[in-house]
Amino acid sequence: MNHARSHAAFARAKELIPGGVNSPARAFGGVGGEPLFFARGEGAYLFDLDGNRYLDYIGSWGPMILGHCHPAVTAALHAVVDRGTSFGAPTEAESELAQLIIEAVPSVEKVRLVNSGTEATMSAIRLARGFTKRDVIVKFAGNYHGHVDSLLVAAGSAAATLAVPNSPGVTPGTAQDTLILQYNDCTGLEAAFAKHGDRIAGVILEPVVGNMGTVIPTREFLTALRSLTTKHGAVLIFDEVMTGFRVAFGGAQSVFGITPDLTTMGKIVGGGLPVGAYGGRRDIMNHILPAGPVFQAGTLSGNPLATAAGIATLKVLRDENPYPKLEQLGAQLAAGLAEAATKAGVPHSVTRVGSMLTLFFNAVPVVDWSSASQSDTARFAKFFWGLIERGVYFPCSQYEALFISAAHTPDDIRTTIAAATAALQG
Ligand code: KE4
Predict the structure, then answer these.
(1) Do 312 and 178 lie in a common domain?
(2) Are residues 166 and 31 in the same domain?
(3) By alpha-carbon position, which residue is closest to atom 5 of ligand 1?
């Protein structure tokens, strides 16, 4: 495949933008080589600058659950763009999107719209601290919640010791109020609450992890989270930026039947435009300015174009219910990838919830970061490029989930499995 125009575009971008990309996830750091530059998307497909067509399994890292250029979304944008792109004043569209979110996610009684998943999680953490008047936030290794200073941290020296920064620019003072535990570790969770329970403002987690590859919580873990946070008066925050409207219309909380106190959202809720949201219990949300004292603001929050795309997307999901189809396509792809890896004699496991899944090049069951991090990333990189050469675009890291859209077909899945089989034999 010819990638000459992507190569030239990358050379130019590197002179203008740090690393030539506006988000490191796009830089192909996990697979080597240079990132592809794209010209357009259409349904399940992306087209790069050199005209190569790919079946797209990144879907903009989750938002494009309907596929690219869904007619309802593009029509909604055309209908509003001539009325003005931003007013910095309330519009009815914001209440319409808020109502759609509240009707879809029962634990959300009130919701605030922001511009990204990071803003949503940053605000939810500040709110949990303001509501409880406590400082400590618990997170889990391998969970990513955006580039929030207090969550860009590494585990302390031993379990249940407070964290240290894992990025320059994050101060020890910021990191010291964060506790990192192991995902699916009920014992560690109980020990942390026993030691710090009266200081824990909130616990934030991905209720299905996508950011170490797809990792599924045990029922015991989710039950322990809910009971311990309730017992100690800590806020349980489900970061559903990725899982919201992805694994089900009501998010992971509707799949597992666990009710968090706050939920953060992003990606799909904006239909590909910049929307984040955080919402939950009315008594907590009413602490947010101007209803309450906890500060949070944003010039473009609830932007008319972004809310139009979000409303159109959620209405299609609500009224056309593509989830049974997404479940079938997900099961078909997961089985096909597992069969291809078995045929190739490659140690692997596949984890999946609905239309988000991961093929781990790993002989052990992946249940947390310590098992995920044993994956064979070199083999993944070879597999990734073998798929690119066959017109299939998987996430450019072993530690990301792939996403199937409602625009994919069973034939697309068969094509993908054939490409994976060939790539693994190569
Ligand atoms: P954004 O600020 O990127 O909109 O959302 C941050 C975020 C928060 N919570 C979860 C569970 C997330 O997955 C994310 C962002 N996900 C990454 C990819 N796994 C976005 C890709 C990127 O960083 O470019």
Answers:
(1) yes
(2) no
(3) 117
Number of domains into which the chain is organized: 2
CA-nearest residue for atom 13, ligand 1, is 242
- Our answer on whether the CB atom of 123 is closer than 6 Å to any ligand 1 atom is no
CB-based contacts of 296, cutoff 8 Å, min separation 6 = 112, 114, 123, 126, 127, 288, 289
CA of 145 to the centre of ligand 1 (A): 6
Tell me, yes or no, if 278 is annotated catalytic.
no
pTM of the model: 0.98
CATH code, 132: 3.40.640.10
Domain that holds residue 23: 4-65+322-425
Is residue 139 part of the annotated active site? The answer reads no
DSSP 197-242: GGGEEEEEE-SSB-BTB-BPPPHHHHHHHHHHHHHHTPEEEEE-TT
Q: What is the mean pLDDT of each run of 10 residues along the chain (426 residues)?
A: 97 98 96 98 98 98 98 98 98 98 97 98 98 97 95 76 86 93 97 96 98 98 98 98 98 98 98 98 98 98 98 98 98 98 97 98 95 97 98 97 98 98 94
